[in-house]
Amino acid sequence: MPIRRLPETLVNQIAAGEVVERPASAVKELIENALDAGARRVDVSLRDGGKALIAVTDDGCGMTREELELAVERHATSKLPDDDLVHIRHLGFRGEALPSIAAVARVTLTSRQSGADEAWALVVEGGKQQKPKPAALDRGTRVEIRDLFFATPARLKFLKQSRTETGYTLDIVKRLAMANPSVAFSLEEDGRDHLRLPAGQGDFFDQRLKRLSAIMGREFGENALPIEAEREGIRLSGFIGLPTLNRSTSQLQYLFVNGRPVRDKLLYGAVRGAYRDFLAHDRHPLLALFLDIPPDEVDVNVHPMKAEVRFRDQGVVRGLIVSACRHALAEAGHRASTTVAEGALGAFRREQPGNYAGSYRGSALPRGLSDRGFDYQAPLSGLAGEPLAPDGSARSIDGAPEEPSGPATDFPLGAARAQLHETYIVAQTADGIVIVDQHAAHERLVYERMKEQMAGAGVARQILLIPEVVELEQEDARRLADRAEELAALGLVLEAFGSGAVVVREVPALLGKLDVQGLVRDLADELSEMDQALALTERLGEVCGTMACHGSVRAGRRLAAEEMNALLRQMEATPHSGQCNHGRPTYVELKLADIEKLFGRR
Ligand SMILES: Nc1ncnc2c1ncn2[C@@H]1O[C@H](COP(=O)(O)OP(=O)(O)OP(=O)(O)O)[C@@H](O)[C@H]1O
Ligand SMILES: [Mg+2]
Question: Which atom of ligand 1 is nearest to the CA of 60?
Fold first, then answer.
């Protein structure tokens, strides 16, 4: 068969196959063009999921009649003035999008250049261009795409149900809106609003947070930590959620590189690293990160839909994300997300008279605040109205109630007022109640303190006045003695004592009064299950958990008022103390306003 040059319409249809996969990808190209044209508002409307009609209207700089004609020609662009593919300053740079779309659909471009006193319309159907005609348009540009893929029926067959296609489009509009908070966006379909976002006003970071909460949810706005970091000319900013606000997928993790929404495995890996200590492996935080990176450090021309980029130095970018997130999480100290309280309040509400077990477990009840909270919150079993004491009885206050003393309630976690069921500390804050799971909180404190001391001068030890001999199975005693050096680094000094026992001489000071026998036995159990080759520091979370279990604050211990207050003050001063090692909260705060609502006072 002879080699031949393909006709232009066919060439364009082939190119369209790469650029335009579905309505959402066409919308993405049109919005990017609007943003490149300096638009302050972008309105998108769809019919039938975008299969029948996609219309994007902007108030950008517009085009002259001549520019309109050029715009639909392949490789015609206004965005590469000096043939420089490195220093790309616009979202577009190829001059591919409009001709590709026009090759597979019926397109009408209407535009009025700012300052011009007339508007022009140009129609292209299946790549065939008509003559521009005078038209009516106040300003900016309106692009209408009808019958997408009418010219390439094979592609049409791959489209999904309209509702699904609209979902894809909504996602891309949201992503572009997140990156451009000062631009107003709307998405409408058959007269129904899917999205309506006003242009942000004032400080850019306020605008951004507002825009992110509008899209990612109010909880995110209330529980987000700001990120600001720079390394080797690469700037990272944005907001990350507290670990206690988490989901079962990484869908609400967004990355933007120089204003482009991208999907990058590097992000997910880095985020996993940053949150490793605070979340179970199957839970994911919410976040939106924005990288500003010098153009010669990143290649944006590696994906036909520009959905991926390639970094020159992945390591630097990854390191920057991990360290900035970790830093912000450490700064957050004891904060746990407000959704924790919402989950707890929801649980209380479910227990109210009238909501009998049978009725609230059914699906008949509307999804309220409570269910929303539980979507991404480990259930707070004790608080959900289940019996707390082993015998199922409701016990009375067994802590030592104190006279309310003035200033202490000013502390973020308030003044301890009581201990309930020898497990929960109840504290009064300026405007609410805090309930602390004393064991979970202490476990976290031990872990954080241990890490801190290991990184510094070493773990502080306390010499036992009388060394304690612990009788064990021969194997267990040997395993412990073999690890004596590692254990000493963690503050526990012991040695073999005959063949079936160890003698403990020093213990980690941060554990307080300690049940040495119990601790050593549990550690022996843990060692027997642990991979011999693994260093104890690699399992620090578990080891600290075991240690905290035998410290003075474990569940089931009665605490004096000073001990409770000391624990609260330590939590306030300790990074990450708002959640345990698995992203579960260590305390719940209920605001008076919410409690009043529970009792119908509001
Ligand atoms: N909404 C708009 N307002 C003003 N000018 C526009 C608009 N849309 C397109 N243009 C002009 O038409 C040209 C071609 O647009 P097209 O999207 O095809 O290519 P591009 O944006 O330059 O590159 P890319 O293919 O990477 O998107 C643009 O360079 C721009 O000059
Ligand atoms: Mg473009």
Answer: 3
